[in-house]
Amino acid sequence: MRNVRVKPLAFRKISAVSRRCHWWLALAVGAFGLVALCFVPGTGNAQDTRVIYQVSSREAMAIGRFDGGPKISTLKKHGNFGLGTFDGLDGELIVIDGKAYQARVDGPPTLADDAARTPFALVTFFKPTQTITVHTTTNLQVLEQLILASMPSKKIYSAVRLTGRFTSIKARSVPKQTAPYTTLAKAVEQQHVFTLRDVDATLVGFWSPPAMAEMSGGGLHLHFLSTDGKHGGHVLDCEFNPLKVELEPIRHIEIVLVDH
Ligand SMILES: [Zn+2]
Known about the structure:
The chain is built from six helices and 14 strands.
């Protein structure tokens, strides 16, 4: 009987010690996990609310999915900064300070109709965290290298904004397409290319990592709006004297697919 009584007591003792150990172990693991979540680079954390909202994909555009998509009014709820296109490739979309502009192939850019639809766009609420000061005359290729050298990782996105005077901006807009649509490569053959010299402008867009090329294009994608509001489009190249370039590295992306 004694043996029988002793056994449960010993068990209760060991069990109580064991429970305390488990609590301490659980607390230690939890604390370590919390620290790891907050400080391990590249994982993001609960406070990292920076996100790109993207409509459709570059690959869908490549095969001619040029229509449908959310309304511009919806897009603006997901970002005040970005770029894209319109239903039927009817001009280049430029989003600056919460205003969406439509730069058609002819005429100056206009404020986009909130009811217009976008089959491809990337927007975010821009809050730059880094500034690069470019000291010499630079073109788009050099700019991309400067951006990459400043980014914490080449595996994530960065929102990019340039504001100032440009020696030149070479840009394009594409004429509206009608269904049945051709491929993007064929549509771009009809692009209207123009070059502006000594122009004050704002360039907005994103650098996307090579691993996301089919989704977002890969590399640097910029649209511009001249400060006088008379010109806008998709930037093919640009040259500029000393200028500040603002960046916002972004790890999160939300993608809405277009099914009509
Ligand atoms: Zn573009």
